[in-house]
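Q: Hi! New to this. If I give you a protein sequence and the SMILES for zinc ion, can you show me the bound structure?
A: Yes, paste them in.
Q: Okay, here:
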Amino acid sequence: HIVNPEDYQPPIWKSYLYQLQQDAPRPKRITCPQEVFHGMISREFADELLARAEGAYLIRESQRQPGSHTLALRFGHQTLNYRLFYDGKHFVGEKRFESVHDLVTDALITLYIETKAAEYIARMTTNPIYEHLGYTSLLKDKMVHRLSRGRTEPRRVTFQRNDRISSPLVRRSALKDTPEKQCSYEKIHNFKVHTFRGPHWCEYCANFMWGLIAQGVRCSDCGLNVHKQCSKLVPSDCQPDLRRIKKVFSCDLTTLVKAHNATRPMVVDMCIQEIEARGMKSEGLYRVSGFTEHIENVRLAFNRDGEKADISASAYADINTITGALKLYLRDLPIPVITFELYSKFIQSAKIPNVESRLEAVHESLLQLPPAHYETLRYLMAHLKRVTLFEKDNLMNSENLGIVFGPTLMQPPELNALTTLNDMRQQKLVVQLMIEHEDVLF
Ligand SMILES: [Zn+2]
Ligand SMILES: [Zn+2]
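A: Thanks. Here is the predicted structure of the protein with zinc ion bound:
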């Protein structure tokens, strides 16, 4: 649903954990009068030295493992001992610190908060503000627009072919004639552990993100900041921020279309429009390759200018530059249009001898593609079908287009020369089938 910008209420950030962090004991280093480090003193003696204050700490050499160091830290009226490591940074667990002082500061905050507020933390995700927040994009752009979650339910239709009714196939409602521009594909967030400078609050549960470093995670695509534990509960509704998406080529398909709020990548739309406008009769269309440096220039233009890239005849007179750029774009996707996950399903489908069952299997596999991949494939196949209508001039039919696009659209999950060679026939066949039966498959 769309929320009216006037209805937007700023979230109420919860400061309980922030207050607690302020109260956490501060590190107090117990220094040895003679040396920098305490030597091989016993646990008991360390205990005695630290008993004075919460937050007191010292580093001693381990008696059991000489040469290794132990951090002894006073917290909760007892002495905690940690094996201390150093590899350019200091650490006892996952987090790495510039100094032992920072490590102890962070440990004290974490221990204090997680002891004092254990129950609070366990419950903090149960009533998230996320839904009310309308996500971060709203804070940045004042654009209150919540993406509709679920996908459009595919509707069941029966299609007729050769005057007999084939088994019912599930068919997605056609988008062709709907000018619907809003993209509602699901996309998972791309969370990475993050160190926040200054106090930060979780955009899922509204609570403070405690600690000195690595307090939470940030989505590299949209900038959403949440606790690590909250990240597992955030829905797959990442709306990538254009400012964070650096390039067009080699960018994940779903990420790119979500960033541009489009149905398909603009590279595919723009190249196909250009080819249909001036290249359909060109001999060897898609088979003949353009000059590598011209294709490279197109790639750079898209990465630099996005949808403003100039690929007109005045910029690139040779249509093979445009077909080459489109092929390169598809080949360079980190996840191919026919995803690694579904690769073998498509290959197996192509091996089915019965034509009718083979088509059905391909259709079943198509429906499992992520929506952005499905829409891209559908648009491309409709275009390739039109290319074959000009076979008399361009000498391209569905079979040789299958040879060209097979390895461009599908790659085995593990690159292995033998599999690739064995699957070539099926790759070609899958594409050939999709072109020939484009009208019923999509
Ligand atoms: Zn995100
Ligand atoms: Zn949270």
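A: The domain at 263-331 is CATH 1.10.555.10 (Phosphatidylinositol 3-kinase; Chain A). Let me know if you'd like me to explain how to read the tokens.
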